[in-house]
């Protein structure tokens, strides 16, 4: 590549006028500089804080430690009437680093921010990262087992509250899995345009220092990588999110999901991924997604990653039902028998 031409040498140096004696004192300039710094801190304190945190912000990776939320349903189950085996399973799962799901049913408007604040407080005290899934879109799950969500205006209010709480925890590393199934399910539901608009608004509301957002990325037994990449691209927020999350609430193998994440990312310049390994220890469910029998917990969070996959996470908390199928209760409810089955080989 050709070098840029060198600037021509000046023909002669112009004489600089002499500085008045009153302005030569170093103490004068120290005072001026101090006043400028104080003024910047007073007027631009928020900017300085953001800049300082931006310097230290780091994406999740292999070795990142995540909290085991004290607000988890596994933890809450310990106070219920359980058999010894169910108690052992709940204790095991309550101790595992996992993602907390913020839903309007559990954490409505007026409470969601306080929940994020409590989780951030725990992460701060333990010196660990925080992982949350935001799950409250209007018409969520297209009326299937996880149906629900908020009205459009309420959804904007809700995510704004969550975003403000995330922004108040700038000293905590935060991972946000945004609306699982929202994109992969959109073609089937016929609401892609609506979803794209909603997700763009949510991303804008949730952005903060050291907050890493991952959109829905489906999984390896669902949509083709090219199609999944098209859906992610449609949201058009590549500069605002870290990437996408795969295998959320599913059971596909870690090997298949790594290959899938790489295939999807090859169509998305610079995007990264996280993989849900909470229930893929056996990975024999195939296309069955609703409480399939014979499955086990997978690799714990922060164990695997590469240049595309930031790391693996426990996104779907094991022990929470997929829905009223195969003996399980309603979606999201604690299922003691399911927890026992999933952890039989791990306890």
UniProtKB/TrEMBL annotation:
It is an enzyme of class 3 (hydrolase). The keyword Disulfide bond applies. The keyword Protein biosynthesis does not apply. The active site is at 181 (proton donor). The chain crosses the membrane at residues 27-52. It comes from the Bacteria. Its EC number is 3.2.1.-. PROSITE patterns: GLYCOSYL_HYDROL_F6_2. Pfam families: Glyco_hydro_6. InterPro entries: Beta_cellobiohydrolase (IPR016288), Beta_cellobiohydrolase_sf (IPR036434), Glyco_hydro_6_CS (IPR001524). Gene3D superfamilies: 1, 4-beta cellobiohydrolase. GO terms for biological process: cellulose catabolic process. One of its GO terms (molecular function) is hydrolase activity, hydrolyzing O-glycosyl compounds. Keywords: Carbohydrate metabolism, Cellulose degradation, Disulfide bond, Glycosidase, Hydrolase, Membrane, Polysaccharide degradation, Signal, Transmembrane, Transmembrane helix. Belongs to the glycosyl hydrolase family 6. PANTHER family: 1,4-BETA-D-GLUCAN CELLOBIOHYDROLASE C-RELATED, PTHR34876. This is Glucanase.
